[in-house]
Design the sequence.
């Protein structure tokens, strides 16, 4: 009987979600009681219902039009982690102010510019109205609201402090996105400069070098070895440019595919990245900051340590650290202390282990983890600035070798001819 009722409720929620998805958004223009022109939008099954609702509110409808759909449909916009972070702060603020959950979802959904995320929030709201708990409703979208997010919400609901936990979750998501943004900022500049250098080199080989080659042939000049190499590279690019581009694009896709499909390759690539000078240090500090922040938040919310570590493993942003956290979870499940299991994986600095040990002894593990997170988040900020200053001369050398060397090799025969005149 219970199973039948559960099935019936699930079908009811599914039907409600289907009804919500059938709603169309209409842009309307109306005159209020003062004759002032008002504009807005409304979701309804047809335009007549929109006009009826406007009249019920005391307005005279002037124009009701179905909103034009995007060129590539609503699926063209993806839901980014930043969207989830902003939503977390909004829902936490509203619930702390006493706004009912369903109404809060309604307000946030109506203010969304991303149509896909708006539909998600409407469906979550519909599920809550059907009797689901918030963590159960969020489980409809496990990609956007991962297991860690749902566990924290579940802990807040169980303890009756959902508004407080939501505020903690919002702060956590904002900190995590801030760290990701800093790392992307540190790596984006050098990568883009190298890409531009490669594009400039290809343009020189395809369009500029052939002009010089023709001039040298007419002058019957003897070409130095560097110039001969550049001319040979130009001829190869003219004949097989599509092969070169195919190899570059194919290599990038193969690298991404192999990392997703092969755990061993992902581990190798991650460990190699952690050993790169300067960049590896930044990735180490980032992983420790994420580990400490995530574990501190989950433990503070009342999630048992073993379950918390299970969720933390995917939040470090590193395959190596993720596997280490899973190993720590196994050690703790058989009775070891957290600080002892951290020593065994040999990844965490002694300062971090000592802080955790003090937290375990004093019963303030979450507080110590937050202190560790704040320290390493500041270290990440410093490392980003250091990385930017260290990479600038390195980038200049790359540009000088690729572009400058090519230009100099083209002018060597000209200098030689000028010397014989």
Sequence:
């Amino acid at each position: 009987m219970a199973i039948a009722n559960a099935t019936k409720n699930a079908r009811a929620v599914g039907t409600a979600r289907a009804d919500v998805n059938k709603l169309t958004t209409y842009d309307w223009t109306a005159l209020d009681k003062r004759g002032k022109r008002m504009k807005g939008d409304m979701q309804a099954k047809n335009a007549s219902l929109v006009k009826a609702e406007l009249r019920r509110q005391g307005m005279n409808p002037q124009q009701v039009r179905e909103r034009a759909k995007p060129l590539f449909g609503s699926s063209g916009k993806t839901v980014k982690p930043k969207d989830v972070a902003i939503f977390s702060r909004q829902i936490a603020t509203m619930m702390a102010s006493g706004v009912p959950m369903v109404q809060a979802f309604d307000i946030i959904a109506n203010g969304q510019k991303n149509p896909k995320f708006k539909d998600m929030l409407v469906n979550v709201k519909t599920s809550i109205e059907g009797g689901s708990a918030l963590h159960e409703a969020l489980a409809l979208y496990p990609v956007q609201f991962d297991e860690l997010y749902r566990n924290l919400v579940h802990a807040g609901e169980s303890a009756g402090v959902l508004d407080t936990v939501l505020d903690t979750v919002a702060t956590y998501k904002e900190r995590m996105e801030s760290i990701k943004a800093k790392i992307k900022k540190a790596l984006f500049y050098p990568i883009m400069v190298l890409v531009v250098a490669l594009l400039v080199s290809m343009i020189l080989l395809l369009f500029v070098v052939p002009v010089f080659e023709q001039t040298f042939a007419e002058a019957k000049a003897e070409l130095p070895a560097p110039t001969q190499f550049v001319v040979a590279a130009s001829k190869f690019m003219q004949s097989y440019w599509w092969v070169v581009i195919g190899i570059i694009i194919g290599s990038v896709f193969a690298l991404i595919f192999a990392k997703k499909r092969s755990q061993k390759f992902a581990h190798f690539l991650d460990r190699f990245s952690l050993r790169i000078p300067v960049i590896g240090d930044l990735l180490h500090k980032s992983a420790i900051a994420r580990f400490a922040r995530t574990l501190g938040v989950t433990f503070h919310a009342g999630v048992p340590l073993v379950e918390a570590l299970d969720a933390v493993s995917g939040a470090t942003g590193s395959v190596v650290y993720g596997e280490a956290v899973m190993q720590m979870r196994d050690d703790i499940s058989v009775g070891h202390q957290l600080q002892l299991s951290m020593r065994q994986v040999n990844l965490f600095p002694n300062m971090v282990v000592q802080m955790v040990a003090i937290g375990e002894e004093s019963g303030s593990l979450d507080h110590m983890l937050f202190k560790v997170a704040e320290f390493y988040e500041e270290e990440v900020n410093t490392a980003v600035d250091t990385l930017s200053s260290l990479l600038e001369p390195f980038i200049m050398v790359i540009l000088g070798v690729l572009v400058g060397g090519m230009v100099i090799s083209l002018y060597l025969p000209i200098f030689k001819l000028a010397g014989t005149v």
